[in-house]
Amino acid sequence: MKYFRIPVVGLLGATLLLTGIQAASAHEAPGGAQAPLRTLADRADLRIGTAVDMAALADDTTYRRTTGREFNSVTAENVMKWEVVEPARGTYDWSGADALVRFARDRGQVVRGHTLVWHSQLPGWLTSGVADGSIDAAELRGILRKHVTTEVKRYRGQIQQWDVVNEVFEEDGSLRDSIWLQKLGLSYIADAFRWAHAADPKAKLFLNDYNVEGINAKSTAYYDLAKRLRAEGVPVQGFGAQGHLAIQYGFPGDVAANLDRFAKLGMQTAFTEVDVRMILPVDEEKPATQAAYFRGLLDACLGTRSCKSFTVWGFTDKYSWVPGVFEGQGAATLMDEGFGVKPAWGAVREGLAAGR
Ligand code: 9MR
User: Fold this and answer.
1) Fewer Cβ atoms within 10 A, N terminus or C terminus of the chain?
2) Atom of ligand 1 nearest to the CA of 321
3) Structural domains in the chain?
4) How far is CA 165 from CA 6, 55, 99, 237, 244, in A?
5) How many of the other CB atoms lie within 10 Å of CB of 176?
6) What is the whole-number distance in angstroms between the Cα of residue 77 and the centre of ligand 1?
7) How far is the CA of 53 from the centre of ligand 1 (A)?
8) Strand, helix or coil for residue 343
9) How confident is the model over 26-76, as pLDDT tens digits?
C-alpha cells in the first residue's frame, strides 16, 4: 500500500498553523487535573475517536484506561474486517468485534464500523475461490451481499457510522482494479450501500479513503461518485477522509473546502484514521510540525458543521501500524511508546477546547 502526498502547503503552512498552539510537555500526564479529550469534544459537538487494537485492550491496562477515559468513539483497527469475522466460509468469529462493542457500550462511546467492502484483508477462501474460478461472479455477488447483511445486522443499532466501501479509487481518480470491480462491475458500490442500509437503516453509511483530505483527483472522484449515487437515491450519507499524513510531504491544501463540497451534497464528513508520521529519528522540530498537522485537520473538521467525528488511528506509538509498513518512519500518534503526551496531544486538546 502506498501513501504519499504532494507537498502543497509545506512547512510554512505548518508553522502558521502552529501559531497559538501551546504544546503540552512531553511528560505531562494525559488526564491529570485536565478534562479528558472526550469532555472537551462533547462540548464541541464532536466525537473524538481512536482505532482500537484488541490485543492491547486486553493486555495493557494503561491502554485500556486511556481508551475509555479520553475517547467517546472507537473503531476496530482490525477485528471487524472480513478475514477476521469469517475466516472459513460460513464460520464466523465475532469475539473481537463483540468485545469492542461491549467495551464501548459500557463507557458511553459510539462505534465506527470498519470496514465492509475492501480489497485488502479478505479471507483466503474468498480470494483463492475467485482466483481459481470456483467462485463465479453470480456467486461472488451473493457472498458479498451475505457478508454485508450479516455483519451490519449483527450490530444493528450499535454502530454510528459504517465504512461501507473502503479505498475504491486510485490516486489519479480511476477506479481501483479490485476483485469487486473486475467481477461485479461498478454496481457493487451502490449494492453494498443498499444492502447495508436495509440491514441497519439508522447507521450512517460512509465512503472512506486515504489521500483525500484536500481537493485532488482522488477526492474529486469521490465527490463525483457521491453526487451520482445520491442523485440515484443510493443511501450514501458520509465521506470519510482517513488522514494518514506525513510531515515530509506537506499539509494538504483546501481541506476545509473539500469537506464543504461534500457537506453541500447533504453528506456528513469525518476524519477517520488520523496519524502524522515522520522520518525517524525524532528531532526538536518534527513534533511541532506534527502537532500543527493534527490541529490543521481538527480545525477543518470543527470549522465544518457536517464534520462530527474525528478519529485517530491509534493514540500511542506503542501499537501504531506505521513502523511496520514504512521503514524508517514512525512516531505518528499523539503519545509516545510510554504513553507520554506529545505536542500533538496538546494541539488536539487546545483545538477541542477552542470548539467550533
Ligand atoms: O492498522 C491496520 C493494521 O493493523 C493492519 O495490518 C492493516 C492491514 O492492511 O490495516 C491497518 O488499517 C488500515 C485501515 O484498515 C484502512 N486504511 C489504512 C489503515 C492503515 O494501513
Assistant:
1) N
2) 1
3) 9-354 (3.20.20.80)
4) 25, 25, 23, 12, 18
5) 13
6) 7
7) 11
8) helix
9) 444 555 568 999 999 999 999 999 999 999 999 999 999 999 999 999 999
